[in-house]
Amino acid sequence: MCSVYDLAKKQPAQQDFDLLEGVMEVLQAMDERRLIRRTDRAPVMLADGTVEEMHWGYMRQGLGPVNNARSEKLDSPMWRDSFAERRCLIPVAHFFEWSGPKGSKRTHRFEHPAGEWLWMAGMWEESREYGRCYTMLTTAANSLMEPIHKRMPAVLVGEEIPAYLAGDLRAFNPSAGCLRVEDALNPLLKNPPTHQQGELF
After folding, report:
1. Cβ distance 87 to 122 under 8 Å?
2. How far from chain centre, in Å, is Cα 120?
């Protein structure tokens, strides 16, 4: 997890204007498809405040695109240098998870309770073939996510954002208060039904 998120248009909160300025410029240059899946390109914010469009997933032979990094394994050789030297923020409007048996899975859409942007902890590296690539940090599920999935993105809030980019934040324990969840139409369906499912919680 997480393997699908979107960059749907949102009104930025007052405190997000500085963070979003460069992101919005990149979004304007993208096509109208704002659903982001593994290997897609999307904007990320670097520690110096610049915004770049990068490839989602570290490419590893035999593994394919590695789009998530477990926060408790960041001292491993695969992640150590990126976590120490190349942190980034990933702007997210909504992200999606699925639950239930194969063939009848339910789609769950997560977002900020006030409809603001979510900021995920990320890292990046240089790839000879794909250029700059990023991955998203994950942590153990909080009480909201736990019934659906055992892992969740490392969502950053408030002062955690500059602390993470500065290299000071090393532990990730998102609270349930920074998210809300609803049942949703599956964004991956080419011809989704016209009705909308009800709220999950």
Report:
1. yes
2. 5
Burial of 187 (0-12, 13-18, 19+ CB in 10 A): middle
Which pair of tokens denotes residue 196? 């909308």
Residues 137, 68: Cα–Cα separation, whole Å? 6
Confidence of residue 199 (pLDDT cuts 50, 70, 90): very low
Q: Of 120, 114, 119, 100, nearest to 183 (Cα)?
A: 100
Helix spans in 128-200 (H): 160-165
Q: Which residue segments constitute the domains of the chain, with CATH numbers given?
A: 4-184 (3.90.1680.10)
Number of helices (H), then strands (E), in the chain:
3, 15
* pLDDT tens for each residue of 116-156: 889 999 999 999 889 999 999 999 999 999 999 999 999 99
C-alpha to C-alpha distance for 25 and 17, rounded to whole angstroms: 12
CA 87 to CA 89: how far, in whole Å?
7
pLDDT at 78 over 60: yes
What tens digit of pLDDT does each residue of 180-189 get? 999 999 998 8
